[in-house]
């Protein structure tokens, strides 16, 4: 530690004080660079560098390094080219499997529709005319039967997707989202729609509209842009939608993100029945008569087995 006079104790431990002159301190602040560094900088400035042998060795090392990098790049390229047929074959196999599954699904759906029609014909023959008509009306309301009529068609489409110049990632702001289709469907229901279908997928009381990555699923079936939301309802349905909150919201998306939006009236359109509707709870509309006393039994709700 320093004493009151600024001297430093001697490292020899003999109690003597080591002092520094003013010229030493001045030279220290004037030339803070070590002499060895200064000499090296002077040699570089005078053009004196490594000798010819050192330069040849440096060039040899650089050439070997570049040759090794080139060899590695060639090997990597050959490996990529060799693996490309396998990747292409796997991709083609997956595409073929998806197409076959879609074709099988379409055939099974046609069979299910045919069986459903046969069941409906048998039911109508067993029931009286009034009961059969009431049942058909309930099926149309719940989505179990196709319906035909006039109403509105709302068309939504994705806008241009710009890519980030740095990361290359594409923005999803201009894409139609599941919440947009939910808003459109809810606005049509509120406007008096009796039946709604999105790209041919009939909506029911248990339908779901969900986002799965970049795809939108309606009752677990993918739908793609442009999205057509067709509804059967009153003649004013299209105008009410266009002038309501949903119409103003979609026009704002058009002006901000370049999305497409259109509202039109439709006449004499047919909406297919829902592909699947799982019955959870059933309750008779009128109590059945009692077999023993002839009085009416209390209504009782029954839960289906297996959600059918």
UniProtKB/TrEMBL annotation:
Which chain regions cross the lipid bilayer? 57-77
Biased composition of type Polar residues is found at 296-308
Q: Which residues form the signal peptide?
A: none
Q: Transmembrane: present as a keyword of the record?
A: yes
Pfam family membership, one: DUF881
What are the start and end residues of every segment in region (Disordered)? Answer: 1-20, 149-174, 280-308
Q: What is this protein called?
A: DUF881 domain-containing protein
Q: Which organism is it from?
A: Mangrovihabitans endophyticus
**Source organism lineage?**
Bacteria, Bacillati, Actinomycetota, Actinomycetes, Micromonosporales
């Amino acid at each position: 530690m320093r004493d009151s006079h600024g001297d430093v104790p001697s490292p020899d431990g003999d109690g003597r004080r080591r002092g520094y002159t003013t010229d030493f301190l001045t030279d220290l602040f004037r030339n803070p660079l070590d002499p060895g560094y200064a000499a090296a900088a002077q040699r570089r400035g005078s053009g004196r560098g490594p000798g010819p042998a050192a330069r040849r060795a440096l060039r040899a090392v650089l050439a070997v390094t570049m040759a090794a990098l080139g060899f590695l790049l060639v090997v990597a390229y050959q490996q990529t080219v060799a693996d490309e047929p396998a990747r292409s074959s796997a991709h083609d196999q997956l595409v073929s499997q998806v197409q076959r599954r879609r074709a099988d699904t379409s055939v099974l759906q046609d069979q299910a529709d045919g069986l459903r029609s046969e069941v409906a014909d048998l039911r109508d023959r067993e029931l009286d005319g009034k009961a059969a008509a009431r049942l058909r009306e309930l099926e149309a309301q719940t989505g179990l039967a196709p319906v035909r009529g006039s109403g509105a068609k709302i068309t939504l489409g994705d806008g241009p997707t710009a890519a980030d110049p740095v990361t290359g990632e594409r923005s999803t702001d201009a894409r139609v989202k599941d919440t947009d289709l939910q808003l459109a469907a809810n606005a049509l229901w509120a406007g008096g729609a009796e039946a709604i279908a999105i790209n041919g997928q009939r909506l029911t009381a248990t339908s779901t509209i969900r986002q799965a990555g970049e795809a939108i699923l309606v009752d677990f079936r993918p739908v793609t842009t442009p999205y057509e939301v067709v509804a059967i309802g009153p003649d004013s349905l299209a105008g009410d939608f266009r002038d309501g909150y949903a119409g103003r919201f979609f026009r704002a998306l058009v002006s901000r993100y370049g999305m497409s939006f259109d509202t039109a009236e439709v006449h004499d359109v047919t909406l297919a029945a829902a592909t699947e509707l799982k019955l959870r709870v059933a309750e008779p509309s009128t109590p059945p008569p009692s077999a023993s006393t002839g009085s009416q039994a209390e209504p009782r709700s029954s839960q289906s087995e297996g959600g059918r």
